[in-house]
Structure formats: C-alpha cells, structure tokens
Amino acid sequence: MKFFHGPVNDKKQHCKTKAAQSRNKACQIAYSLVSYETLKQTNSDSPYGNICQPVKQMSQMAGERNVKSLDLPQLEVRMLREILRFLRPSEERQVWLVGGSIRDLLRGSTTVPDLDLATSFNPIGFAREFARATGAGFVVLDDERHVVRVVSAVKGSHYTFDISEFRAPGIDDDLRARDFTINSIAAPLFGSGAEALKDGRIELYDPLGGIEDLAAGRIEPSSDRLFTDDPLRLMRAFRFSALFNAEFSSHLHQMIVSQASLLKEVSGERIRDELFKVLGVADSARWVRIMDSTGILAVILPQLHACHGVEQNEWHHLDVFEHTLLTLENIEKQLLIDQPFGWWHSFMNYLNETVSGARTYAQNLKLGCLLHDLGKPPCRRYDSEARKTIFHGHEMEGSNLARDIGERLRLSLNEIHYLQKLVKNHMRPGVMLQQGLNDKRLFRFYSETGRDGLGIALLSLADRYSALGSLGDTELAEFTAGIFQIMHQFYEQLKRPNLPPFLNGNDLIRHFKLKPGPEFRRILETLEEAQFTGEITTRDEALTLAETLLKQ
Question: What is the β-pairing status of strands 157-165 and 147-154?
Fold first, then answer.
C-alpha cells in the first residue's frame, strides 16, 4: 500500500514552516531523555504507562499477614453461586477458589472475570451439566487430568471458569504443585466458606505465605519442584516479576540460575507468549537484562547473548550487547513521553494495535530493538585500509536472523515481516537525514515501509542515542528533530487526496506492447514516484517518461 499521495511542491512554504516548528519542538525533546528517571516516577498517566501499579501500592488489608477474608464483587458472587449449584460442594466434595483471581483481588482489582476452581472430584460431568442448563460455552482442556473450561456471557462481558481436579492429594499438596506462592492462595467454597459466600465474602487459606510475599513485592516458589514440573515457569517468573514490579527471592534466583537450561525443552510458542508479556511492560529492558544475568537469555535468544564482548568502532561507546539493551531502554523512554505533536497519539494508537493474537506493534517493536544488530557479530571485520572495524551488510544478515527467530518463536507471518522490515531498514532514516530530506526519498521510504516506517524511524532515533560516540548535544538534537520530521511527514501525506495514476498496467500493454514482469513494475513505480514529486503533471508527460525508461 502506498501512503504518499500527490505532490508537495505546491506547498513548499507551508512545509518549511511546519518543518521549522517540528524541528524546534524536537530539539527541546532531544534533551528530555536526561530527566527520564524523574519522568518515570511522575508519568503514571502516560498512554504507555506500566500495565500494573507496583505491588507495594496494594491496599493495606492485603499487606497484613493475618488477612482472613475478602469481599467479592457482586457479579462474581452471583456467578460462583450459580455454578456451585451444579458442583454441589461439601466436606466430601470440596471446591476451592484458587489462583490468580485471589491474587488480583488482594492487589485491589474490582473485577476478576477469570476464576479458577480446584475440586476433590472429577468436575467434567457437572460442568457440562451447568453449561447445558445455562447456555455457557464448554470445552474439556485435559480429559486425563480432568480439566474443563466454561465460559458464560453476562451483561456484555465473559466470565471464564477453569475447573480442575486437585493436582495432588488434598488442597495443601495441590497448592504446593502450583508455581509461586502469590498464586497459591485459596478460598474454600464449602462449609464455612459457603456461608461466607452468602455474605459476599471468601475466606482465605494461605499455608505458603503468599499474602505476605505479595505485599512485600516478592516472587517465591511454591516448591523446589517448580521448574522440573514445568520448565516454562522459568519464563513465568519473569512475567510476574515484570507485571507486578516484584523481585525474585534469593532462593528463586538461585533456582533460575541453576535450572535455566531446562527451558530448552519448551516449545517456541510457549516461550513467545511469556516473552511478549514481559515486553508489554513499560520498562522491559530491566527484565531482559536480568534474563541475561540468570542465563535465560542465552537459551531463548542465543544470537543476542552472542553479542556480548563484540566491540564496535568509533561511532559506538559500548559493545553490541550493551548497545542493544540501551537501544531498548531508549525507545521505552521515548514511549513514556507524551510528545507535543498533534500526530503523536495516532502513532501511539497504532503501536497499541494488535499484529497477531494479543501481540501488539509496540511489543514487536521492542523485540525489533533486541534484534536490530544481531547481524553484526557474523559481519564484523577489520578494514586495514580505513583502520577501523566495519559491519557491512549487517542489516540484511540481521533480517535473516530475525526471520529465523520469528519462525522459532512461532510468530505470525505479519510479525516476521514486520521484524524483518525493522531490522533491514533501521539505519535508513539516518542515511536519509545525512543525504538531505526531500520528496523523493520520503516517497520511496514510505512506499516501501508504509506506516511501519514510523516504528523504523523511532528505532533509528533510539539506536543513535545508544551509539553516542563523538556526537555532541547539538548534533543529537538535530538528529532528533530530523527523525520527528520524517514521522511528521507521514501524517501530512495522509491528509492529501489519493490521485489516480496517469498510466496503469493496461496503458503499458496497449501503448508499448509490454507484458507484466520486473520491467513492467519498474516503470509503473517510477511513474508513480515522478507524479508524486511533480516531475510529470500530465498523461502525455507520463507516456514520454515511460518511453524514455524503455530505451534505458
């Protein structure tokens, strides 16, 4: 899809004025990164703020070790009462509310649409009976382990019940078989628990101290079998740590370091899902760095880990790995700033769109930051004549590596193409600024990249800030202004009408007896570019240019 429509030459003065305004704003913004730490503390209302507030901000009640009960939202009470009529809990037929819903209520959530129930009996038949009677969705997730999912539509929303038989004999062993103590808090829905539910409350049962760990902002394993039972929990530890801004206990940290290699047994798509949840927080670079220090990164992204110690040239003050992590940090800083451009919110809305499943452009852009220089280690060589280290072709090599990584993580084709586009073109905005911005270069850039060129431009800016070398503040400010001008021009061109081409494929066939092929495409693209830049303004001029191109 082409995103530049119509010439801009007739509005040169207007564009110069707009460019000057954008440059002045961008020069000011160039220095704002210095105060990022202050900004991060005060910008909680940013359109790209952290997904979850820190655990330490939870209610005072949740911070008390002796919490005995919690109030449930009314709709959740109603849903539980309805399904319990079919499960018919008792001392002999135990039903417990477990898992993330209790954790989220303790953190102050006002609704918990995903409810996990653990039972002392096989719940599948009873859940099927409930689904038939209420019209709810029903699916058996694991027939052997007796796990079933029921989905009910209520007031335009969906409530999901995941119901499973105890993972081990009794509730205590079931809770120890779970991942982390913050997810191992339970509430009985029988006996006194049933009486509490009548009053809209749940009684809490916390044998592993999950409430205390939650209040302390600490991720603690429920048992030493944590990772051997399911190695994916190595990634889940980082997910919960990132989402809740919580720290690993020393015991958990040691377990991760000693058992990181178990992740090799886990499929790419399962690792992908957890990795993207980490990339979804506002400061994911912090957790990527911890992944590296614990050995996790060497398993899930060995090509990135291999960038350690790969020295660069005079343009860089860091090795490839540290430069890459700083690039991610810098792009996250930019995303926390509410830039003073009219188009900035449109850009942020674009980043928050999903590419595939629940994965957004923003998450893929961050992954692109991690991949953008992976081609450097295999392309590194020393130019004896120039007496410097060079990385010629690292963009194309990196694009191939991005494809391989995307396929291993089972990303969609759209995501793989997006990542390849980011990596292949990440230096292009800088080259355009070095050569001088003009209509033709901007047209070619956005014709080839579409709106993804916006992410490429921001990546280029973060990349430059992470490769300071000998550049001074003035040069960086000018580069920043130039990048924002490139992004600004995309939105300016969207305002222009989509002019019909002077010539189309049928014209080339009729007038020049051409057949569709590479030459055919080259002529049409050149004609489109010439029409955009104002080099041709009539159909006759288009025919003349086409004839000239055929003679070349």
Answer: antiparallel
